[in-house]
Design goal:
The chain has 122 residues and is mainly α. Helices cover 67% and strands 5% of the residues. The chain has 2 domains: 12-91, Arc Repressor Mutant, subunit A (Orthogonal Bundle), CATH 1.10.10; 94-122. It contains 5 helices and 2 strands, in the order ββααααα. It is elongated and about 80 Å long.
């Protein structure tokens, strides 16, 4: 007779920066929770993240439902942290210069595509 395992290992890992990921993947806890809260089924989440094992998806959802307040507080902190980092990045002169360069290159590409389409239609 085989004995049933009565304990499970938590399949979550906290990185040095505080981000919690699903162990063995680069996928953050909040990604799966957001998809679940948006109404996605575990199968739909699996289609979006084929590297996730279905059991891991169910585990994350079960963990979230059992620890909703703590996970929601963690997600709120992550969102606030992300917003601070974004504001810091966007306030830098190099960011503004890079964005201006990107816009210029995108406009040049669009102009070149329009010229190409015009010559093909002629």
């Amino acid at each position: 007779m085989t004995a049933l395992e009565t304990t499970q290992t938590v399949l979550l890992t906290r990185l040095d920066d505080g981000t919690i990921i699903i162990t063995g993947t680069p996928i953050a806890l909040e990604i799966v929770v957001a998809r679940h809260n948006a109404g996605d089924t575990p199968d739909e989440i699996k289609r979006g993240f084929p590297s996730l094992d279905p059991a891991d998806i169910y585990f994350v959802i079960a963990y979230y439902l059992s620890h909703r307040d703590e996970v929601d507080a963690y997600i709120q902190r992550q969102q606030e942290r992300s917003q601070r980092v974004r504001q810091w990045l966007e306030s830098g002169e190099s960011y503004r210069a890079q964005m201006a360069d990107l816009r210029e290159r995108m406009n040049a590409f669009r102009d070149a595509e329009e010229i190409k389409q015009t010559s093909l239609n002629s």
